[in-house]
Amino acid sequence: MLRLLRYIVRRVKKIKSYLRLKQAYFLALKMERSDDPRRLFSKVSNSNLASKAVLWEALYYLREKRSPIYDVITESLDDFELNSLVSLDRALASPSQLTLRELEVFIEFYKYKKKSINNESAFRRLLIALIVKKLPSCQAYEAFDRAGLLSGITIHQVLKVLNKASIEGEKEIFYNLISKYSRQMNSSAKIKTAYWQQRMYKSSDEKYKSIEADFCRLEKSISKEYAGYLFPLYQSIPKDRNLIDCLINDESIGKIKSSVELAIRARTPYSFVRLNDGEGYGFSRTLPCAFDMERQELHWWGEKLPLTLRNKIQEDFRRSLPEHDMVGIPSVFRFIDELSINRDYSIFNNALLCRLFTLCHGYLKLYDGRACITEGQINLYLFDREYIAKLARLAQRVIFISGAKREYLQSVFDDVPHATYIELPTHRLLKTEKFSYTEATQPLPYVYENYLEQIRELAGPGVVFFISAGFVGKIFAAEVAKNGGVALDVGQILMNIVANHVDA
Question: 236-254, pLDDT tens digit by residue?
Answer without folding.
Answer: 999 999 999 999 999 999 9
